[in-house]
């Protein structure tokens, strides 16, 4: 009889296929591709719950999982509420800027929603439901280390293939290959924007480097050369060699993307994970390695400081001004927000003459854009999910003793931290593939942190 952890094998296979597919159609950042993502997630959830209804083993969530799913579902409900028509007097009190916009529209009626664009808000709601579904599926289906490793392998493997494809496109080998990127001198895989490709690389680099840290790759040397040689030979014969290979490929992709924000986010994520796990030797060795990588990246990309390069190309030089303007937008509806996904339509009303000739569909800062769309109310809901998830993962990293699970938790914590740091200067959470990967890793970390949920005993490892 199969263990609970090995249940739903075909559904789990479907989840792996879906995760592998997501980055390839432009990061799933088109209506048709994110609609396929939503349909796939909802189908997999339907299969899981239909099997459960026929008397299969009960579905179990790890500690903290139910609360996180509840908070995410509450955020989806709030997005739906933003589309519900309310009496105009209510909107005038709750959302004066939306009231003013609707009053100028032809055919004004006595009822209007909180959101200035209900279509965009509904689309954001459906995407968040899909991310919640990925988060839930991972926690329900991953009960054994073998499956947890499969999730990480799919994400890293996809990043490696994206890098190889992106390099091929930028060389004579890729003559005739599809090239969706708009930056001719940067690698972006099948993403349009090199920074979103870099967001995927941040996750993969963190997973690989985190696993190597926990396996002792960055640890201090042995007492003599014989023990060092013996350790190196043993290490080369282990699976860590493949981790190192994937790390080198994805670091190359990150550097060739020319994303300074991505490079800093990857290093910062690993540093945070090292501090949380209290592996100070690994932190020092890893920081030294990442410092050398950063120096190499600066030499590769040309002179100037890393900070100058971060904001020195094209429209990115306007990010500080863009952030200040977004704060003005937040001030118009600080508590309830202007409606999910409406930044693109509300921003022109507050931009100054410096940004008058430029079009921004996102704020290049996920935190500010979330507050502009959902207000403090929605921001608190999502912030609580992240806080609870990080607390559970950090606690599990210190409490669990199985090496495989600790390596997984270290890599997941580094990846999530890197993604959140990157969100300060970009909008990867608005790219469905990257957002879905983030929630998959968050669910994976919460599941692995629960000793009773993700089994570590060898006799239970069956896929």
Nutshell version of this structure?
The protein is mainly α. It has helices at residues 9-21, 31-53, 65-81, 88-94, 96-104, 118-141, 145-169, 194-214, 225-236, 240-256, 260-277, 280-301, 306-311, 319-332, 343-346, 366-399, 403-422, 432-449, and strands at 86-87, 111-112. The chain has one domain.
Please describe what this structure looks like.
The chain has 18 helices and 2 strands. Helix 3 packs antiparallel against helix 16 and helix 7 crosses helix 10. By secondary structure, it is mainly alpha-helical.
Mean pLDDT, all residues: 84
Q: Assign the structural class, choosing from mainly alpha, mainly beta, alpha/beta, alpha+beta, or little secondary structure.
A: mainly alpha
Helicity range: 55-70%
Shape, principal axes of CA atoms: globular
Strand segment tally: 2
Q: Report the total helices.
A: 18
Question: How many domains make up the coordinates?
Answer: 1
Cα Rg: 23 Å
**Strand order, biggest sheet?**
1-2
The SSE string, one letter per element, is HHHEHHEHHHHHHHHHHHHH
What composes the largest sheet?
Answer: 2 strands, antiparallel
Alpha-carbon distance between the termini? 12 Å
- Portion in strands: under 5%
- What are the segments in which pLDDT stays under 50 over at least 5 consecutive residues? 302-316, 457-463
């Amino acid at each position: 009889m199969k263990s609970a952890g090995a249940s739903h094998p075909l559904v789990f296979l479907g989840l792996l296929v879906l995760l592998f597919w997501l980055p390839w159609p432009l990061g799933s950042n088109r209506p048709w591709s994110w609609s396929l993502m939503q349909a796939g997630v909802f189908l997999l959830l339907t299969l899981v719950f239909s099997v459960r209804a026929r008397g299969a083993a009960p579905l179990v969530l790890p500690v903290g999982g139910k609360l996180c799913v509840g908070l995410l579902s509450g955020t989806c409900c709030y997005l739906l509420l933003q589309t519900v028509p309310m009496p105009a007097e209510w909107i005038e009190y709750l959302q004066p800027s939306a009231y003013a916009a609707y009053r100028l529209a032809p055919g004004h009626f006595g009822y209007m929603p909180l959101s200035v664009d209900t279509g965009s808000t509904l689309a954001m709601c459906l995407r968040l439901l899909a991310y919640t579904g990925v988060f839930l599926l991972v926690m329900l289906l991953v009960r054994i280390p073998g499956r947890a490793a499969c999730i990480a392998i799919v994400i890293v493997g996809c990043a490696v293939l994206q890098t190889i494809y992106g390099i091929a496109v930028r060389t004579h080998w890729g003559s005739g290959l599809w090239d969706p990127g708009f930056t001719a001198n940067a690698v972006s895989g099948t993403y349009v924007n090199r920074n979103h490709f870099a967001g995927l690389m941040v996750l993969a680099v963190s997973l690989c480097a985190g696993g190597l840290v926990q396996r002792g790759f960055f640890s201090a040397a042995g007492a003599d050369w014989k023990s060092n040689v013996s350790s190196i030979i043993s290490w080369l014969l282990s699976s860590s060699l493949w981790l190192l290979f994937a790390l080198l490929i994805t670091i190359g992709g990150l550097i060739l993307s020319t994303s300074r924000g991505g490079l800093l986010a990857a290093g910062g994520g690993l540093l945070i994970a090292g501090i949380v796990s209290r592996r100070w030797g690994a932190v020092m060795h890893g920081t030294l390695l990442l410092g050398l990588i950063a120096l190499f990246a600066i030499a590769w990309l040309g002179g100037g400081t890393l900070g100058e390069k971060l904001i020195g190309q094209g429209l990115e030089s306007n990010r500080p001004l863009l952030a200040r303007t977004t704060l003005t937008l937040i001030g118009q509806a600080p508590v309830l927000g202007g409606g999910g996904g409406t930044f693109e339509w509300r921003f022109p009303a507050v931009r100054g003459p410096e940004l008058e000739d430029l079009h921004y569909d996102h704020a290049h800062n996920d935190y500010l854009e979330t507050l502009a769309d959902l207000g403090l109310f929605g921001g608190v809901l999502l912030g609580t999910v992240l806080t609870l998830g990080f607390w559970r993962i950090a606690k599990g990293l210190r409490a669990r003793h199985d090496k495989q699970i600790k390596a997984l938790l270290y890599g997941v914590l580094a990846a999530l931290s890197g993604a959140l740091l990157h969100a300060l200067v970009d909008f990867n959470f608005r790219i469905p593939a990257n957002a879905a990967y983030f929630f998959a890793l968050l669910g994976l970390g919460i599941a692995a942190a629960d000793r009773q949920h993700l089994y570590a005993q060898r006799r239970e490892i069956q896929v």
